[in-house]
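[step 3/7] fold_predict: job queued, chain A
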Amino acid sequence: MSYARQMLDTYPHALGVDADALAVTIDAANDCAQACAADTDADLSEQNLADMVECIRLCLHCADICTATARVLSRPASSDPMVNRPLLEACAAIGKTCGDECERHAHMHEHCRVCAEACRRCEQACRDFLGAMK
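[step 4/7] structure written:
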C-alpha cells in the first residue's frame, strides 16, 4: 500500500471521493515528477544535448505540474473541484505532451522510455480521476 493511500486511510473525515482512485492519481503524479526530474538529468548528460532541449523543457514543466497536482490532491480537506479539475486537466495534458516527446527519443535513450511510461501512467490516472469526479 502506498503512503498516499495510507495517509488517506488515516484522514479524520469522509473524503467525498474514491480513496483508491485518489491515491492512484497522487502516486502516479509523484512517480511522473520523479521520472521527469531524473530524465532531465540524464538528458543533460547526453552527447547530443541540442537534440534533447525540448525533452528537457517538457520534463521540467511536467515535473512541476505533477508535483503541484500531487500536493494539492494530498490535501483533501481543502478539496475544491474548481481548483482540482484544471490541475488534473493540466497534469493529463502535460503528461501526454511530455510522454510523446520522450517516446521520440525512447529508441535511443532508455531513460526516455521509462519517463514516457511514467507520463502515460500519470496522464491516464488524471483522466480516470477526472471521470470519477463527474
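[step 5/7] annotate
The chain has a mean pLDDT of 95.
The chain has one domain: 17-133.
exit 0
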